TrEMBL record:
GO terms for molecular function: metal ion binding; metallopeptidase activity. It comes from the Bacteria. One of its GO terms (biological process) is proteolysis. InterPro entries: Metalloenz_LuxS/M16, Pept_M16_N, Peptidase_M16, Peptidase_M16_C. Belongs to the peptidase M16 family. Pfam families: Peptidase_M16 (PF00675), Peptidase_M16_C (PF05193). Gene3D superfamilies: Metalloenzyme, LuxS/M16 peptidase-like (3.30.830.10). This is Pitrilysin family protein. Residues 38-159, 526-643 form the Peptidase M16 N-terminal domain. Keywords: Hydrolase, Metalloprotease, Protease, Zinc.
Length: 933
């Protein structure tokens, strides 16, 4: 078992003295002859290994005209390499039961995986081959295909998203032309389209040498054996040229710059103010981070009190410090209520800052924030992958893998004086960049005298010849010589999942308790689940449970909203309430030493709600704002309409659990009080995972014995026979660069005899990046950034759903591919697929319950669906016993394509005539799911 409070072991180049009580991560560091710095962290708590490789190159190494290249190269790196089969990087790792991905920032590119222990050497083989042996395999066909994938990513995250261009606008005006942060990480589509194979090879030669990287391996490893394997697999990678270090490049603005932008997707006005500050690891960063929390992140915060409580301009306000390698930013963000003038918001921010200047820093607030930061340190380091990320970043950018020890000390040392110093130095009377993003046609809401911001907008064209891509032929090249056999290594010994020990108990009032003791970190996570949720909402007032969950955190009979928040924060704890379709939850986390005090507050929240009219009015306004805001998200629109069609008008699940404009407008505090009577311990379940024994947990939870109420009768709703099947429903989203597609049908509930079988059968079709949907629509065709399928889990009958967002001019072709794939899925399912499914799921289970959060979800499944504590082992036995006929039967029973509905949210002007060629009857709907005649 790993314990975070360990002395740092075998550490090279210690830059700071540490003591026994410091927060630390133990590690061993060494450097290969080629300059690659390697950090190893041993953790035997689970039979898994995490690997993270960080290249010291991000978008800050690019030049104008070639923006987005670091991110594009990350994508290219996953395609092919000399000693690994084509497509294996994306496909094989999930098939081994692992997960993998990469990420690019302003400053770095990171590649990472988590795999079962038996695949450890295999991941070193794949990782090292991608790192040192991929460049000869790059072809023009692979380049063109990956361009489409990255362009789809930009369309999905930027072009098709409300406020998606805000970052681009801010960077243009905050960082002068030529500054490495003047452009976004994803870059410009014209730059991407112009990229050549020569550009890829040049970039690799310049930045992908071993001396420009750090490698971290964390998990169930042997240090000495791992050193030998690393030298074998990574030791021959070329050192590469010396990459010149970039010094900090802070910016100073000679004047404040105010910009406006009409956003065709946004439904609410948003104001952002960005001040230039300091780079990462600068000593001022820590005070600025705490300043951000002090200004807005609590009910005592001056910006919150002015903007949210007093002037009721927005449901919330955010302020935060963001530091990168070369520079930093302090940001204020307010997404205002519908039709609010942003001049009013700007004036309110000024008023809040003036109040902060006059009142100064509240010592109790500072103490609360530091307590929360202590808990967050442990929470953030509770998985091997998170520890790998921390070690690799601090090594690459600070030269000290253990710098988190100093980070903890520097945050703890921040004083009220430090906070006022950075406020006066970087915020007070300083220039900034301000963006007013307003809905189309509502320029009157923008800050007065703002200048129009210009961004490049892609035009949707149905026929674009160079967007038809394919895998193409493999590259012809001479393989790089090696003194080692670089063919695929064998698996190690298979580590089967072994369930953690689950203990159970109960209280006299009927509350059942499920627990797992886990002493890896001194943390506890807990969840109280009360059956009902949205199912107990009055249908014509859907959203009551959701609103009550917000209301219960707004103080108690003895504590104001600010007082409750402060009491929780001073413990370094986190408590929140939320409602789902079928349950109401009170959940949270805390340091183990503070569990008793935390549960005292939970008890108070349950038994002594405040019922504050003023807070109710504020929350109801926030609910209305959020409902309006979701109209800007095509994915949310697709999901809401999809559920409405599947469940039918009479079923409560046809309405979002947060409600609609119609169902929420007449909700009163009386409705919340009435729903509160449904919260009973008689059918409730308390789940707890962490550093606490059964006896101690039960002793503390005895405080809940005072809670008593009769359990509510949960209504049953009839599900329609689905007369709307085999139709295509189209919703116009003008100007959409992508079409959101959801396809599916109601299938079964979690307690159905075939629930596991259908989940297993879905794995080949849509289970992650190795699934046929992803492999075809993204890898082969370049139509999308991702495509997946799943069966939702609930006691109510739940749908099987296929989800993807495809580039607009590939909508018809994507629909045809999916239809053909589903229609032929049972017939095409093979004995090879059976074995692949078994391997993928069995090995994936080894990392399924590593974190406390995952263990909590395991307990929730056991209690909700009345599963034995050995259900994971039982599921494995069921999987191993399944024959090919079992898979085919499950597919034929539940995945009949003719019984499915198709929902498409896209641009009508360019796509409506196209999808008529699909051959299904089309019904046009508005964004609320109403038929358009």
């Amino acid at each position: 078992m790993i314990i975070c409070l360990l002395l740092i072991a075998s550490c090279a180049s210690k830059s700071h003295e540490t003591t026994e009580n410091d927060f630390k991560i133990n590690y061993t560091k060494f450097t290969l002859e080629n300059g690659l710095e390697v950090i190893l962290h041993e953790d035997h708590s689970d039979p898994i290994v995490a690997v993270a490789t960080m290249m010291h190159v991000g978008s800050n190494r690019e030049t104008l005209g070639k923006t987005g290249f670091a991110h594009f190269f990350e994508h290219m790196s996953f395609n092919d390499s000399e000693n690994v089969p084509v497509g294996a990087n994306r496909k094989m790792i999930p098939e081994w039961g692992g997960s993998r991905n990469g990420g690019t920032s302003n400053d770095y590119t990171v590649y990472y995986e988590v795999v079962p222990k038996d695949a450890f050497e295999k991941i070193l083989w794949i990782d090292s081959d991608r790192f040192g042996y991929m460049i000869n395999t790059v072809t023009k066909a692979a380049l063109e295909r990956e361009k489409q994938v990255v362009k789809n990513e930009k369309r999905q995250r930027v072009d098709n998203a409300a406020y998606g261009y805000t970052e681009e606008i801010k960077r243009q005006y905050l960082y002068r032309e030529g500054h490495p942060y003047n452009w976004t990480v994803i870059g410009a589509l014209p730059d991407l389209q112009a990229a050549t194979v020569e550009d890829v090879k040049s970039f690799y030669a310049k930045y992908y040498g071993a001396s420009n990287a750090s490698l971290v391996i964390a998990g169930d490893i042997d240090i000495e054996e791992t050193k030998k394997l690393v030298k074998k697999w990574f030791g021959e990678i070329p050192r590469g040229p010396q990459v010149e270090e970039m010094p900090p490049m802070p910016v100073a603005l000679s004047e404040t710059k105010s910009l406006y932008f009409e956003d065709g997707f946004a439904k609410l006005p948003e104001l952002r103010m960005t001040y230039p500050t300091v780079e990462n690891y600068n000593k001022d960063k820590y005070a600025l981070q705490i300043l951000g929390q002090l200004l807005s992140e609590s009910k005592n915060a001056p910006l919150y009190k002015v903007i949210v409580e007093e002037e009721k301009l927005a449901p919330n306000v955010s302020s935060y410090q963001y530091s990168s390698e070369l520079a930093g930013e302090f940001v204020f963000v307010v997404r205002a209520n519908d039709s609010i003038d942003l001049d009013t918001v700007k004036a309110a921010i000024d008023k809040g800052l003036n109040r902060f200047e006059s009142e100064g820093v509240n010592e109790k607030d500072l103490k609360r924030i530091k307590a929360e930061l202590e808990t967050n340190l442990y929470r953030d380091m509770s998985t091997v992958l998170n520890k790998a990320f921390q070690l690799v970043e601090d090594n690459e950018f600070k030269g000290d893998p253990s710098y988190i020890t100093q980070t903890a000390k520097l945050m703890e040392a921040v004083t009220t004086q430090d906070i006022m110093i950075v406020y006066n130095k970087y915020i007070k009377d300083k220039n900034y960049v301000m963006t007013s993003v307003v809905p189309q046609g509502q320029l009157n809401l923008a800050v007065a005298e703002a200048n129009e911001a210009k961004v490049w907008l892609e035009e949707v064209k149905q026929e674009v010849a160079n967007e038809e891509v394919s895998q193409g032929a493999e590259a012809v090249y001479k393989k790089t010589p090696s003194k080692y056999d670089r063919s695929e290594p064998e698996f190690g010994q298979l580590p089967l999942f072994k369930s953690p020990i689950v203990w159970t108990s109960s209280l006299n009032n009927g509350l059942e308790i499920y627990g797992i003791e886990n002493n890896e970190v001194p943390l506890i996570q807990f969840d109280l689940t009360i059956p009902g949720g949205h199912l107990l909402d009055p249908k014509d007032k859907s959203g009551v449970a959701n609103l009550l969950s917000d209301m219960m955190m707004e103080g108690t009979a003895n504590k104001t909203p600010a007082g409750l928040e402060e009491a929780i924060g001073l413990l370094g704890a986190n408590i929140y309430t939320y409602s789902t379709n079928e349950d109401f939850h009170i959940t949270g986390s805390c340091l183990a030493k503070n569990f008793k005090e935390t549960m005292t507050l939970v008890n108070e929240i349950i038994l002594e709600p405040r019922w504050d009219e003023k807070e109710f009015d504020r929350l109801k306004q926030a609910q209305a704002t959020n409902i309006k805001g979701r109209e800007a998200n095509p994915n949310v629109i697709a999901s809401m309409v999809y559920n409405k069609l599947l469940y039918g008008e009479e079923h409560i699940l046809s309405i979002p659990s947060s409600g609609t404009q119609e169902t929420t407008k007449d909700i009163t505090l009386k409705d919340l009080r009435k729903y509160y009577q449904n919260l009973s311990p008689q059918q409730a379940k308390f789940h707890i995972a962490g550093a606490i024994s059964k006896n101690k947990a039960k002793e503390v939870l005895g405080s809940l014995e005072n809670w008593s109420a009769e359990a509510a009768t949960i209504p049953e709703f009839q599900v329609p026979e689905n007369p709307k099947a085999n139709l295509l429903y189209f919703i116009d989203f003008p100007g959409a660069k992508q079409s959101v597609i959801q396809i599916g049908k109601l299938a079964l509930n979690r307690t159905h005899d075939f629930a596991n079988k259908l989940n297993f059968a879905n794995e080949i079709l849509g289970g992650g990046s190795s699934g046929k949907l992803f492999q075809t629509l993204r890898i082969e065709k370049g139509y999308t950034y991702g495509a997946y399928s799943e069966i939702s889990e609930s006691k109510t009958i739940a749908p099987f759903t296929i989800r993807t967002s495809v580039r607009a001019n590939a909508t018809l072709k994507s629909l045809e591919i999916i239809q053909n794939m589903v229609t032929n899925y049972a017939e095409a399912f093979s004995d090879k697929d059976v074995e692949l499914t078994k391997n993928k799921i069995l090995k994936g289970n080894t990392r399924a319950y590593e974190s406390l959060g995952a263990q909590l979800r395991m307990l929730q499944n056991i209690s909700k669906y009345n599963l034995p504590t050995s259900f994971m082992e039982d599921n494995q036995k069921e999987l191993i016993a399944m024959s090919l006929d079992d898979y085919k039967n499950a597919i034929n029973m539940f995945l009949d394509e003719k019984g499915m509905i198709y929902v498409v949210v896209g641009d009508k002007d360019t796509q409506f005539e196209e999808i008529k060629k699909f051959g299904k009857e089309i019904v046009e709907l508005d964004i609320y799911g109403n038929t358009i005649n």
